[in-house]
């Protein structure tokens, strides 16, 4: 499979070829450790670790099951909003450097966070849903299946 090191026209041509073959009902099997390429190419993902099947499912389900999304909230009223969101059942952590007035929120969707901010008179400068990458999901799910980590056998 060509990857980011390949010429862009070649990479796009190969992706289109795989899509066309799949649309004809053919099975296209790729083996790669480059999750960024899999995100751009595959519909289904099979993950094997130490000879055992870890996952076999649609790519989007794999990422959603394996990672936690969060919402980044920027506000000049971070402490006040943190209290409101915590009371609503969210987990709230400071995001970035101290004094950045940003929060990383899990446990509530962006729409609910925005509504709670509005209801409590809190100004928002940013409200962004952040989903972990497929690579992060892969690393999380295969952590116990790695035979070598930082040059040391497990």
TrEMBL record:
What is the protein name for this chain?
A: ABC-type multidrug transport system ATPase subunit
Record keywords: Transport
The answer to keyword Transport applying to this record is yes
List the source organism.
Streptomyces caelestis
Please report which protein family the annotation says this sequence is part of. Belongs to the ABC transporter superfamily.
The answer to whether keyword Electron transport applies is no
Source superkingdom: Bacteria
SUPFAM superfamilies listed in its UniProt record: P-loop containing nucleoside triphosphate hydrolases
